[in-house]
Amino acid sequence: MTLHDLNMLPKVQLRQELLKCCGSSAWVEKVMNFFPIEDLVELLDDAEEEWYKCSQEDWKEAFSHHPMIGDIDSLKKKFASTANWAMGEQSGTSSASEETIKALVKGNKEYQYKFGYIFIVCATGKSADEMLTLLESRLLNDPEKEIEIAADEQNKITRLRLQKLLDK
Fold first, then answer.
1. pLDDT tens digits for 41-71?
2. Closest by alpha carbon to 160, among 113, 125, 117?
3. Count of other CB atoms within 10 angstroms of residue 154
4. Are residues 72 and 140 in the same domain?
5. What is the pTM assigned to this prediction?
6. Fewer C-beta neighbours within 10 Å, C or N terminus of the chain?
7. Which residues are part of the catalytic machinery?
8. What is the C-alpha separation between 110 and 38, in angstroms, rounded?
9. DSSP labels for 75-134?
10. Can you give the pLDDT at residue 168?
């Protein structure tokens, strides 16, 4: 899709496309106000600025639109609209050992119990072992620090997805 195509979408469709990039409805509404947009750099800058104006609850809503790292079944079912992107982003888990996958599942459960949302990491280019190391180190964070890190990771994911949206 080109930027022109995105600018020409009816509001309902534009909303759906933006939700694929970031699952925060508040963020989507804020970003929709910038359309029509002149270029990708402007879109990325505006999107990031609005992301950091969102509340922690808005951030958690966005996190809830991601499958847990390594949860392929969930990717195929619950997250069908973004499954191709997420599978590509999480491709580092496809060659992971069973031991690493089990450790990721266990760590994800501990993380969700401690922080109340799933572990968010911009997985693009990372191996399963790298993600596991990040997960284990972030489990040591206090909730205030971790929500900021998770928000930064979501911002990276959103930026990549906005670029992919326009690379179709």
1. 999 999 999 999 999 999 999 999 988 876 6
2. 125
3. 25
4. yes
5. 0.86
6. C
7. 66
8. 43
9. HHHTTGGGHHHHHHHTGGGTT--HHHHHHHHHHHHHHHHHHSS------TT--HHHHHHH
10. 55
Which residue type sits at 36? Answer: P
Q: What letter represents residue 143's amino acid?
A: P
- How many domains would you assign to the chain? 2
Buried b (16+ CB within 10 A) or exposed e, 112-136: eeebebbbbbbbeebebeebbebbe
Same domain? For 94 and 127 the reply is yes
Contact predicate 158/20, CB 8 Å: no
Write out the two tokens for 13: 């469709």
Residue 136 to residue 108: CA distance in whole angstroms: 9
